[in-house]
């Protein structure tokens, strides 16, 4: 599934529309360069889960937990794991837990990332500073169901 957004607000809106479809244990991997919009997407998603705290990039903490929404949200940024091990941080416990995990820079945590996930690739379109192209790919049965539900949900909205 592919689509484009024209602003940060539109990207937040995609996150907002995915949020009500999420179930405990869902895992979303966000791939894209610095400034692509990974944290912006997560902000929209968190808001629609009912998280009241401000979403801050977990670049320096690696993980931030938000437990005041409909489901616990585990927001990870693995960029700084480049030279260390994800296993040492106990990230598996989050993936096995009953929350939703969102991972920026999953490339750096390949040794601990489970087999089933929804991958979201974000790229600049080149047409304007604010244009982004999204490509969503499901790996596994539950992510496939989630992606199908999102397609129907987005169609309903438009
Ligand atoms: P990342 O987490 O991928 O490094 P951020 O979400 O922190 O990126 O930053 C994205 C930046 O790009 C923000 O300043 C945001 O306002 C801006 N931006 C402009 N257009 C878009 C868009 N269409 N989608 C997401 N962010 C956008
Ligand atoms: Mg980020």
TrEMBL record:
Signal peptide: none annotated. Keywords: ATP-binding, Cytoplasm, Hydrolase, Magnesium, Metal-binding, Nucleotide-binding, tRNA processing. The keyword Cytoplasm applies. SUPFAM superfamilies: P-loop containing nucleoside triphosphate hydrolases. GO terms for cellular component: cytoplasm. It holds the Pfam family TsaE. GO terms for biological process: tRNA threonylcarbamoyladenosine modification. InterPro entries: P-loop_NTPase, T6A_TsaE. The keyword Endoplasmic reticulum does not apply. GO terms for molecular function: ATP binding; hydrolase activity; metal ion binding. It is found in: Cytoplasm. Belongs to the TsaE family. PANTHER family: TRNA THREONYLCARBAMOYLADENOSINE BIOSYNTHESIS PROTEIN TSAE (PTHR33540:SF2). This is tRNA threonylcarbamoyladenosine biosynthesis protein TsaE. It comes from Lapidilactobacillus concavus DSM 17758.
């Amino acid at each position: 599934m592919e689509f484009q957004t024209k602003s940060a607000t539109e990207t937040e809106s995609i996150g907002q529309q995915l949020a009500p479809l999420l179930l405990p244990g869902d895992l979303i991997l966000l791939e894209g360069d610095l400034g692509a919009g990974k944290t912006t997407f997560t902000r929209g998603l968190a808001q629609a889960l009912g998280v009241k705290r401000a979403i801050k990039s977990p670049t320096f903490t690696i993980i931030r937990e938000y437990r005041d929404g409909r489901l616990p949200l585990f927001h990870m940024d693995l960029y700084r794991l480049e030279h260390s091990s994800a296993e040492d941080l106990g990230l598996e416990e989050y993936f096995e837990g009953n929350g939703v995990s969102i991972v920026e820079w999953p490339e750096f945590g390949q040794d601990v990332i489970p087999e089933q996930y929804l991958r979201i690739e974000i790229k600049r379109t080149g047409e304007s500073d604010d244009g982004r192209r999204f490509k969503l790919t499901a790996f596994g049965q539950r992510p496939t169901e989630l992606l199908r539900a999102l397609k129907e949900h987005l169609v309903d909205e438009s």
